[in-house]
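Q: What structure does this chain adopt?
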Amino acid sequence: MYKWPYQGWASAGFDAWALGMEASAVIGLRTMKMAAGGYDAAEEAQLMVSEKMQSALELQTALVTGGLGSDPLAGTRKVLKHYRRKVKANRKRLG
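A:
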């Protein structure tokens, strides 16, 4: 049976698209929360920045320790999985 050589990348592309869609929903929810102002808005803004810094640090650590795998596709999938988990948690918390 013929296996398309880019099948893994097509799947990763779809996962990236899904991440973008879910991230858009989180952006909308956060925007509404921040537009309301007050203590909750300030807390959300601080949380947003600290989460982004923590995620970047976690991925940098994974990169230099070999935790992202040995080939580009495996690394891409692990990065997407990492961010989708974070975005999903935020969507659940904000929704």
